[in-house]
Amino acid sequence: MVDASSAARKIATMATSPCPSGNEKKHWWLSNRRIVYKHIKEARNLIATQEPSDITSALNLLDAALALSPRFEVALELKARSLLYLRRFKDVADMLQDYIPSLKIGNDESGSVSSENSSQQLSRERVKLLPSNDSSSETAERDPSFKCFSVSDLKKKVMAGLCKTCHKEGQ
């Protein structure tokens, strides 16, 4: 098992030295990728123990991996799962807001938004994206570029349209 202090030392050492040493001829992105995969492997092992302290250490490793490769889906998924296991739902919501462009708030006057303010803005955005059917006064205010739909309904409509087209061509 890896304790939190040794994991933090490892993270600090690996995250601060992304460039290979002088005797290595490998490109820096290859060594970064290797470091990211190593962090993910260690994080998976820590998460498998299902101990909250180990999962917290795994989060630190995943943060280090995401510092080197910010959009790496495996690391993002493991981080979200770890946060959910630790019941840190607000952190997961904030993480989703960062990585899903349609949830970004268009009117950010300040560079940093407090998490309390962030959740209020997210609620307002959700209201704008998913208005209730009974509020006809909001219909005029809605942005026409935002349309919410069910993917399964869309799939059914597309398949029905394709079947109709096939039947018309066959006649």
What's the arrangement of secondary structure elements?
Blueprint: H1 4-16, H2 28-48, H3 52-68, H4 73-85, H5 89-99, H6 115-129, H7 151-170
Helix pairs in contact: 1-3, 2-3, 2-4, 3-4, 5-6
Shape: elongated
Query: How confident overall, as mean pLDDT?
Result: 69
Q: What is the percentage of strand-forming residues?
A: under 5%
Beginning-to-end CA distance, first to last residue:
69 Å
Helicity level: 55-70%
Query: Mind summarizing the main beta sheet?
Result: none
Strands, total number:
0
Our count of helices gives: 7
Based on CA atoms alone, the radius of gyration comes out at 23 Å
What would you call the structural class? mainly alpha
Low-confidence stretches: 11-23, 106-132, 134-140
Order of helices and strands: HHHHHHH
Would you kindly provide a written description of the structure presented here, covering whatever features stand out?
- Residues 108-143 are annotated as: Disordered.
- Residues 108-122 have a biased composition (Low complexity).
- By secondary structure, the chain is mainly alpha-helical.
- The protein has a domain at 4-103.
- The chain has 7 helices and no strands.
- Helix 3 (52-68) packs antiparallel against helix 4.
- The longest helix has 21 residues, at 28-48.
- The termini are far apart.
- The model is unreliable at 11-23, 106-132 and 134-140 (pLDDT under 50).
